[in-house]
């Protein structure tokens, strides 16, 4: 979803204001978004747009990105525009308006706008680097520090190749510039202040915007937040253990679902499964199964019931005959999605994720520190941790561009700058991607914010878990700016179809 040793938060406030304030706002006032109708089924009023922003805001007449946007116009009395980013970094956000459109009140009151950030998706230019897959042998006894060390030169070569291919713009894709773009779009739609829903990595955009432009904030939700005071080493070590935290939560509410993850993994360790077609074998092993669970099923609790169904498909796929054929076809689709999602951790999104993260954070862990990080993660996250951290720890190797670090909200001056900003924070007790410690760090950085914590392993909660305890205060905040209590904890809301029999029988306690 990471820290900088070259903290811009330590710059004098007058310098920060000059570099990130009036220049962006002034240039944005003259800019226009070009909108045209692009209706789709159920959304006949949808509009598509383009918006030009400079590679380098210090050279406003130089080369430009053409950002791709979509807008669902407000259907009622409009408060303003609500921008959204769904995370990543590197994930397309063009249709992220759809998240808020599930709320009638929000779709009536706001123009809902999604956009592909610079270098991403339909925005041009965009990353187009080749994915490089590295994976461990199909055995439970992997030497993860050794595997990570062996993968490091492969990752470095991939990053160097991507930098060469994207040399024209790669150093300009960081979040500091995305925030400038967001401020320019805010001005272009005519809003005096920003409304923004940042999910996962989008929370980095949101908190950085709040820091850069504190007087231009109307409402910002940081949902599934990253830490505002981290590092690349922190990201690799903390984030890589979060999926095991979510799995432990699932074990507490649905032991059968947890058992499906572990037993299916073990069966595939014992005997790989060929899910390919005639003449085109495709071997599915234990770690391939974990990637399917990780990319498709674990992050959102509404998908948790699908874990046992997918495990059933693995069992059925061993059958010779029509039933086995159908199950193998299902698994091929799930496996293809998993490969597209993470590509074994390298460049599956065209290279955008690692490039943006490595522009945003300047620290580069050395070999000894990387080995320590891998060992620490695997010791506390034995199921998913090795898969994640083995590519995360060396994720910035090979890049030679100069980072453009996001601000760290840690110094006395930086904390004073954001002290009175009234944000909303939404997090989970066992988030599968951005752990609760990061949400707590965000809450400490913004003492005037309120925090809504849900008891779940879900990643990103607003409008996604059917919890009114979560949704009502956040929606009210966007609509009226009403602040909820400083901290609210919401109980787990079980998704339909999740086997909760052990809890119902009193054999398990949620937590």
Largest sheet: 10 strands, mixed
CATH class of the domain at 18-127 and 171-232 and 407-490: Alpha Beta
Kindly state the mean pLDDT as a whole number?
91
CATH superfamily of the domain at 18-127 and 171-232 and 407-490: Alpha/Beta hydrolase fold, catalytic domain
The second-level CATH architecture of the domain at 18-127 and 171-232 and 407-490 is 3-Layer(aba) Sandwich
Helicity, in percent?
40-55%
- Give the CA-CA distance, first to last residue: 25 Å
Radius of gyration: 23 Å
Which structural class best describes the helix and strand composition?
alpha/beta
- Low-confidence stretches are 1-29
Q: Please provide the count of β strands.
A: 12
CATH level-3 fold name of the domain at 18-127 and 171-232 and 407-490: Rossmann fold
Spatial strand arrangement across the major sheet = 1-2-3-5-4-6-7-10-11-12
| Percentage of β-strand residues | 5-15%
* Basic shape: globular
The DSSP helix count reads: 20
What does this structure look like?
With 511 residues, this protein is of the alpha/beta class. It has a domain of 256 residues: Rossmann fold. It contains 20 helices and 12 strands. The two termini are 25 Å apart. The N terminus is likely disordered.
What's the topology here?
Blueprint lengths: L12 H8 L1 H9 L3 E4 L9 E8 L9 E9 L7 E6 L11 H5 L2 H6 E7 L27 H22 L9 H14 L5 E6 L1 H12 L4 E7 L8 H8 L2 H12 L1 H16 L2 E2 L8 E2 L1 H13 L6 H12 L5 H21 L9 H9 L6 H14 L4 H8 L19 H7 L5 E5 L7 H10 L4 E5 L13 H13 L6 E4 L10 H4 L7
Parallel strand pairs: 4-5, 4-6, 6-7, 7-10, 10-11, 11-12
Antiparallel strand pairs: 1-2, 2-3, 3-5, 8-9
Helix pairs in contact: 2-6, 5-15, 5-16, 6-7, 8-15, 9-10, 10-11, 10-12, 11-13, 12-13, 15-16
